[in-house]
Amino acid sequence: MLRFIEHGENEVNQYAMRITLTIFLSFVLFAKTEAQTNNSPYSVIGIGDIEDSYFNRTSGMANTGIAYRNNHSLISNNPASFSGLENQFFMGEIGIRGKLINYSGNAINANNNSSTDITFKRFALGIKLTRHWGTSIGLVPFSSENYEFNAQQPILGTSGESTTAYSQGYGGVNRVYWTNAYEFFQHLSVGINTSYLFGSLQQKTILQNPNTPSTYISTNRNIFLSNIYFDYGIQYYGHVGKKWDISVGATFANRTNLNSENHITILNSDSVALKDETLSEGVFKLPRSYGVGFSLTKNKKYTFLADYKYQDWSALNYSGFNYSLQSSDRISVGFEISHKKNLYNTSVETNFLHAGLYYGNSYLNVFGQSIKDMGATLGIGINAKRSLLSYNIILQYGIKGTDSYNLIQERYVNLTFVISYRDLWYTRGVKMQ
Fold this sequence. Notes:
Porin, 61% strand, mainly beta, 1 helix, single chain
């Protein structure tokens, strides 16, 4: 009896150490891995580029997965998916992305037309608390701002005069979430994702005096954003005959205000503060969003997925100089091949292959032109034979924007690494009901 108690205590200590190590390594990566030289010109508007990647298993399928369920992966595309996690297993995942962008357009300097970036993007943990209840916590980016450029800016009150303006901005909004999903009747799952959005945007603009270039005015703006954010999901799934599995899913998020604190400092060329004040006001809103998805699997091996997403940005009536926010949408399809083998009368996945296509209209309309984003993805995943880790590598190629109408086109290549850890969850010998 004493040996049994000691063995149980050792088991608890081992699991605690594994969990602690996973959290520690993930936050070390988050602290040390940061953006390098990557610029995104269109992130100058709003709260920056809205992140549309989930940095999980579906990334190789163009992030298609509103109806997707997988018992070995943390699928955050739809909060309802977490009820499909395997019983009595603990899972952790991290995601890292490297990005290369080439720019084209009349405003681009031929000697400075590319940028690179490598960033830690995701940290997530998930477990199955009961037979029907799955939960997950995580940290992911919600939006990012990173730009730097020189441009001519008109001087108000003059007859067509302009001055050189230098603009720089960086920062973004992060998302800490807690997701819960519950399964009903073995065919229906509902989920809720409770998130806390937080972050800051640091923006600087320097205007030169056209008559005296050494004289300028610098405006520094620090915007701190935060609020609670909810989104919801549902999935219905079942079998069609002996070979086919089918699933449909939907997601929804209501309109949300982002609370903000706006600190503005205006300096002249002698670093004398002309203005220094802090304003508390709601400067940005997130729109209602909807999504629907479909999944069809044959023989537990071949899976086809399709998603459609819509965000009602136009209802916010937000616009500025030569730009406005418009409703955005995105359609994507994905395909997966899962290779398995029988081990001790159990089917075990050894590796998987992914492919996907996507096309979307972003929430930006600049000079009357919708900023479109399209591309393709390929991915491969390997489940290690002698460890509890699995590895997923995703290659993505995309085109964003256009080089017509004095705009900028981005051609980008992303390389994403997703590392997953899976282990038994200590339950003191109690079987889940």
